[in-house]
Amino acid sequence: MKTSTIFFNYAIAGAAFVSAAPLLSSCVLDLGLIPELVQVNLPLAATATDTISVLNQLIPQFGVRQGAQPDQVQVGSCDGFNAAANQTALIQCACPPDRVAFLDLLGRAISNGTFFGDDTTFSLDANDLSEETNKIRANVATVVLQSFNLSKGVGCPAASAPNFFVMQTSGTKLDQVFVA
């Protein structure tokens, strides 16, 4: 079993303290040192890193480069790709998000089992590359992408990750570059 240590900074009556606590798969802390009950759920850092590595293998690349070909008329918009219509589409220039940040959020959503009410469970078995499993993975990745800014529907549109659409419809992982 993997363990990690996390350091907490806290203050009691104006004096600062630092403590270390070993973590197992998750840790719930009851900081009874302050008047209110505070609970902090912390995932194991090493597990998150492992999950990101596995997800990087299972989830296709976005297929669009962030900030590609800025639009001169609609400022703040850049080229994305609508795979369903097989044509470019304008997306926010900040999309798609940083891949590691995206995979981290996706991993946390999978760990929680839900993301804004949507089921986010799927197989992390790298040997399971069935069409059905890949379609589920792509659906969950799209849900997280579209709410990446931690508000339901406030994130990046599907046109910022056309490879997700291909995987949703065909069940095949594709790492094609649609917009560079």
Structural class: alpha+beta
Rg, please? 20 Å
Strands of the widest sheet, in order across it, are 1-2
Q: In percent, how much strand structure appears in the residues?
A: 15-25%
Low-confidence stretches: 1-46
Count of helical stretches:
4
The residue-averaged pLDDT reads 80
Order of helices and strands: EEEEHEEHEEHH
Major sheet size, sense and barrel closure? 2 strands, antiparallel
Number of domains: 2
Backbone shape: globular
Structural account:
This protein is 29% helix and 24% strand. A two-stranded antiparallel ribbon has the order 1-2. It is α+β, with helices and mostly antiparallel strands. The protein has 4 helices and 8 strands, in the order E-E-E-E-H-E-E-H-E-E-H-H. The protein folds into 2 domains: 4-43, no CATH class; 47-170, no CATH class. A hairpin with a 4-residue loop joins strand 5 (77-82) and strand 6.
